[in-house]
Amino acid sequence: MDGQQGKKINPMLKLALELGPVVLFFAGYMKLRDQTVTLFGSDYSGFLVMTALFIPLMVITTGILWALTGKLSKMQVATVVLVVVFGGLSVWLKDERFFKMKPTMIYLLFGGMLGFGLLRGQSYLKLVMEEALPLKPEGWMILTRRLCAFFFALAVANEVIWRSFSTEVWVNFKTFGLTAALFLFFMSQSGVLNRYGIEEDEKG
């Protein structure tokens, strides 16, 4: 999906730019969760205040990432757009549900993109991660099918959590649960990576 090569930056800086807004949202929400803030004559819950702050912070950190690396993946761009749209709707309409639906939309989009590629006999995941994970073609197809199903499962999980539990439970799920789930997914794919990985001497 992105053939353009980007410049390398410090991995810790990259991680801070990508996860920083999420961590700050969580910290701010935990501090303001029981408070109501009055802005411009309107009352906003702590959740909506942090949502309003999260939107520009996400845009700024993504812009910094683009400035430093010279590129953004389509997934990063899609994430920012959905944050702006759904976060903006939540703040504008004072309705937390829109922002809570945002992860669902993101994972449906990612799963749909991978699924569309699979229907065409292609691994769009390979186009994004080939440099980081050199695999044989059959390995990419297996990993893509699994990740596609996993994204759809995360979308369902997010819907169940925000519709069935409190806002605090959802914030914890979004901050820690989704991140941990993605980490554990890739850890669990070590068999595929070992079986279909391409060694350095095979690349040439």
Automatic annotation (TrEMBL):
Topology in membrane: Multi-pass membrane protein
Keyword Transmembrane: yes
Transmembrane annotation, as ranges: 12-32, 44-68, 75-93, 105-125, 146-163, 169-187
Naturally occurring in which organism (per UniProt): Paragemmobacter straminiformis
Signal sequence extent: none
InterPro entries recorded: YciB (IPR006008)
PANTHER family attached to this UniProt entry: INNER MEMBRANE-SPANNING PROTEIN YCIB, INTRACELLULAR SEPTATION PROTEIN A-RELATED
Gene Ontology cellular component terms for the protein in this record: plasma membrane
Family assignment from sequence similarity: Belongs to the YciB family.
Localization annotation: Cell inner membrane
Pfam short name (any one): IspA
Keywords: Cell inner membrane, Cell membrane, Membrane, Transmembrane, Transmembrane helix
Name of protein: Inner membrane-spanning protein YciB
Protein purpose: Plays a role in cell envelope biogenesis, maintenance of cell envelope integrity and membrane homeostasis.
